[in-house]
Model the fold of this input.
Amino acid sequence: MVADDIKKQFIGYLKKKAHRITNERFLILDSAVNMNVHFDADELYLKMKNEYLNVSRATVYKTLELMSECGILTKHNFKGDRTRYETRIGRKMHYHLICTLCSKIFEFENPAIQKIQDKLCRENNLMNVDHTFQVFARCENEKECKFKEAKNISLR
Ligand SMILES: [Zn+2]
Ligand SMILES: [Zn+2]
Done:
């Protein structure tokens, strides 16, 4: 189950923005924060359906948006791919390397990246509110690249 403080954070946000607070939304919250990959709305929807959780696709899409607006999820747009989400709960700030052939995602941390942007913001009298850093690359070892198997690309 999702921790109480996360649930409270979400309820607070829904109230503030005058969105309906429904059990369906809490089911989605619970499933989404327990996804341990970069997932898209359809993947979550299908997973929930397989677990016999009764939610509509439209509500899954909408609720994921709300969860990213209130800071529970990070939303990613990797080049040309569908919008992907990942939970922020218990995760450190990290960045992504993506193979452009097989779409495999590697995560890394690097505090220097944060420092550079803070400096850039300060120099321009700006306050840093959000950022993203993505590197598009190719698996060096062709045998390890899943490109051939991944014609209808699935990111993990
Ligand atoms: Zn990630
Ligand atoms: Zn690859």
